[in-house]
Amino acid sequence: MIVTVTLNPAIDQTVQVEKLSVGSVNRALGIIEIAGGKGINVARVLADLGHEVRATGFMGVKSHPFFHAYFKQHRIQDRFVSVYGKVRTNIKLVDRSDSTVTDINLPGFSVVDSQLTSVFDPIQQLPESTWVAVCGSLPEGISLDAFERFLARIKSAGMKLAIDTSGPALTQALAVKPDLIKPNIHELEALAGKALSPREAVSYARGLIKRGIGTVVLSSGAGGAWFLSGQQTLLAVPGRVDVVSTVGAGDSMVAACLSSLDQHFSLDSMARLATACSMKAVSKTGVGLDGDSLWEVLSDRVTIYTL
């Protein structure tokens, strides 16, 4: 069992255009609307990888039936806590000419700090050493201090904690020494407070390991990703793939890392699987592995370097 926590879920609307023209009328080539939010995306890929997955977090009561149907379709246990209001809508404009994505994130429901207790309930029932991945942004009304206390409760219950968030929430989360974090290069630079060269970024990530973070995965798009543990530093470089959309690539990488850690894979195997799943994600529209084993083929096209 692996648990994902999405405190601020969304309905993801992906709209494709041939070439985005700012200030003009753009004709949509197609639209896909799915249940979204980073933790939900991670849960979807984990289920596709064969894991038993429990998803929890806050869910706008008016949107819950839509999400529940999605969870049932993809074999994800729904343990979300219903709150008043609707979830937010994230509009992703995909420019087919260069595969860039423009995000427009609308506001959603609001909650209060005390409601985090109800999200912890489906987690504390599980055995120690269960992986719990807390992913995405914080909803309106949740303070950083309450977020840190929530994460500390997860750690105190003996769970393995993975974090995939950014900005002040990521800074706050580091205080509880998570077992896995996956910042991208821009999120790491925000932590450092300055621009970083690749060498400086790896050095900073190693510093996080020394501060007690179990594993750091640092992604840099087409340039690959660094995988750091207390014993190794690896660079995984993806083979060439025709990019359709980058939506969900990072979430696919997080899911593959969790799958690997849950099965006690080596860092090398984790880097290969995570990069292959990310390659699979960018080769298509939407989230998930779609029930095929293309990612297994792609893993042979990943080059691993030891640093």
TrEMBL record:
The keyword Cell membrane does not apply. One of its GO terms (cellular component) is cytosol. One of its GO terms (biological process) is carbohydrate catabolic process. InterPro entries: 1-PFruKinase, Carboh/pur_kinase_PfkB_CS, PfkB_dom, Ribokinase-like, Tagatose/fructose_Pkinase. Residues 8-288 form the Carbohydrate kinase PfkB domain. It catalyses: beta-D-fructose 1-phosphate + ATP = beta-D-fructose 1,6-bisphosphate + ADP + H(+). GO terms for molecular function: 1-phosphofructokinase activity; ATP binding. The keyword Calcium does not apply. Keywords: ATP-binding, Kinase, Nucleotide-binding, Transferase. It is an enzyme of class 2 (transferase). It holds the Pfam family PfkB. Belongs to the carbohydrate kinase PfkB family. This is 1-phosphofructokinase.
